[in-house]
Inverse folding.
């Protein structure tokens, strides 16, 4: 009887784990974004905070391909507005391609 009780407990625990994994709507934390596959639509759907962080990342990424070391915080605000307008018109374009349209 003792073995059977242990097997039942193991089964219940396993069933709970499987159920938790299959329940829709359970948030799973992602470690980050693959900016090479992120589209304008994805960016538009993100929070303001995430959008700000991604714009900063994109500016750094693009700056890595230029010789300038200047970061103008005023132009970053304009860039976000410019990027938002561009992304509204072009939701399927990738974010790196969209960001390359920004003034640098």
């Amino acid at each position: 009887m003792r073995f059977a009780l242990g097997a039942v407990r193991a089964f219940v625990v396993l069933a709970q784990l499987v159920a938790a994994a299959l329940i829709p709507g359970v948030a799973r934390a992602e470690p980050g974004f693959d900016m090479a596959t992120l589209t304008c639509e994805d960016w538009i759907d993100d929070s303001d905070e995430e959008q700000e962080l991604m714009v900063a990342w994109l500016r750094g990424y693009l700056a890595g391909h230029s010789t300038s070391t200047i970061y103008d915080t005023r132009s970053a605000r304009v860039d976000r507005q410019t990027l938002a307008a561009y992304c509204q018109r072009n939701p399927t374009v990738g974010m790196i391609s969209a960001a390359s349209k920004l003034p640098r």
Summary: The CA atoms of residues 62 and 100 lie 7 Å apart. The mean pLDDT is 74. The helical segments are 2-22, 40-45, 48-63, 73-89, 95-99. The two ends are 74 Å apart (CA to CA).
